[in-house]
Amino acid sequence: MPAPEHVIVGRIRQAHGIRGEVVVEAITDDATDIFVDGRVIVAGTVDGSVSPGAQVLTIRRAKPFKRGWIVRFAEIADRNAAALWQSRYLLMPSEELRPPAADEVYYHDLVGLKVEHSDGSALGSVAALYEVPQGLLLEVKTERGTVMVPYQPEVVTSVDVGRGTVVVDPPEGLFD
Q: According to CATH, what is the number of the domain 107-168?
């Protein structure tokens, strides 16, 4: 599978303060290398796509904050402007990032994968991803409808992007 052109590295959660800073949730293992002064990041969507003319943001200052980062972008002037960025994804060109390790996967690679039960039976395919306070949910389209599957290690036992599969060990009744 070819490498994506852009990769999600973070998501703006909310405005912070009055000077245009935002709280960013890092969606990468390399946050300390990515959220640095001068880094250029592109606004995009959860599927990793960047539309023509997408907003480019330059980090003026970034510092760790609780479980995320407080970031000041040169292009965001004040709190009102910062509030408009809430829930936007931040992407970088994939060639600027290290490739994912064998046990890692990009969010957008999950969409379209076939979902199999740990016993080998076919269950459906991943149609979309949703972030909720408890974590990531996979929307799985099945023959009988839609099932929301928590992306937790006790439920999603393996992901093989090359094979195009997500193997799950769902709680009893989830797919009934």
A: 2.30.30.240
